[in-house]
Design brief:
By secondary structure, the chain is mainly alpha-helical. The chain is built from nine helices and four strands. The strands form two sheets. A two-stranded antiparallel sheet has the order 1-2. The protein has a two-stranded antiparallel ribbon with strand order 3-4.
Length: 306
Amino acid sequence: MDTQNLSAPPCARPLNPRGVTHINVPHTTRFTVVGNHLAQHRQLSLTAIGLALHIQSLPDEARVDIKTLADRFAEGETRIAAALRELKAHGYLAQVRKRLPNGRVVTHTVSYNRPQDQHPEYVPVPAAPKAPPRPAADAVPPPPPPAPEPRPTTAAPPSSSPASKPPLPEPHTPDPELQRAATALLATLHHDDPRFLLAERDVRRLAPAVAAWLERGARPAAVRHSLTSNLPHAPLRHPAALLAHRLTEFLPAAAPPAPPPGSKPVPPPPMANCDGCDRGFRTWEHRNPRCRDCREAGLGTRGSGS
């Protein structure tokens, strides 16, 4: 039979493989009682909980300002200041004013081991209001100030704020065919992008702007491309507002007016060979013609040596 090991504990406690096992030894000196409402606080950060535990373990009149705590711990003044603000917001710390026997008012830090335990002796002392000076018995009261003269009211000029939205473009000449084509284009934009399923009132509001594009010679396919290309991948909160912005900002230039009937078309410039690179191009210049590339490069005529 083996010899009994007297150093083993009389009853070994099994360890929990899935969680923590507490081995609690009663403290008789140098300990601080902390409630679970602080140790397991849901809103406080770990830095704030640890700082509250440290402050509660300190004796009275110990310094707990930011600089002293930053010298004691490695978190730095920024994190310690944020932790102190958390403790003040949840009622574990308070900055109150206390009047000393000599009449001086000083700021004092109070630490609460329970937020609701408020001590009446640390209630902030309000500053006594100063009484207004009494006038002398023979003093003559000053006359009342004169009433301001009424200023003539003028109509305010209309505000010309740069943030005001420009109006939507409209066709110069109403055309029912263009209006129907614009309405059909807007009503079927969701075929290209499902986010452009417009309401009926938005289609009626935007149709004149699309008709202005069609009046200027833009093809329906080009209008669709301008309205639905290069869109963000995020959901569109206001698709009609996006279309209104593009219809206004990307409005194409108006086509030049057609020549009057019976007028002859202007012939293009004749062909000429560049004196710098011998490239053929059209120009009205007949003496030493040079193309644009040679003019920008500063080349002279052939055989000039420049």
